[in-house]
Fold this protein.
Amino acid sequence: MNQPILGVIFDLDGVIVSTDNCHYLAWKRMADEEGIPFDRTINERLRGVSRMESLSIILEKATKDYTEAEKQEMATRKNGYYVELIQSLTCGDLLEGAGDALALLRNKGIKIAIGSSSRNTPIILKQIGLEDSFDAVADGNAITRSKPDPEVFLLAAKSLGLAPANCLVVEDADAGVEAALAGGMRVLGVGGAAANSNATFAAESLAAANFDTILTNQ
Ligand code: B16
Ligand code: MG
């Protein structure tokens, strides 16, 4: 018999808010400046992946080698462009169903947390008006290993005071689905991860997810 779900850990980008286009535009600007081919297909591989690992994927198409210092500079430059872009995010940029899902879970007494690879999580939560909405926030600033390592989700569960077996992760990236399962948690795949056959539950979006069923049919 499964343990009851007492906490839900949400990935941020692609689940609560769509910052993926901002990531794309910022990486594209940096890549264009460097003359490195980069398109939306390559961008799909960056979902849930840390900033430096994202850069490594982009550099697969580079025709020259870059030093560590140059790589740091490129990542910092991209982040500057990204932070500029996310200044215009508002609560209107919450993904469909996100606000309702958070309210429903709160009403049921379920604890809610963020588990994101992004080091910009605090800025994003503030921009979309959710900085005080979660019982715990675990993000890229607090971890050393990014998804598919379970570190960020284990930290979120610990901050909630819950065992991994009592937590459900909501993820849009395959790396995040893998991370949740590696951490001993169940996972609801949404968006791009809805088609991931390893996900415990699947829904096209948070708007289509039936938490009543998920929480009772455990
Ligand atoms: P940053 P998530 C991830 O957020 C993004 O999906 C991924 O594209 C990005 O590279 C990563 O955060 C790091 O972001 O450069 O802001 O630290 O999906 O884990 O919420
Ligand atoms: Mg994501």
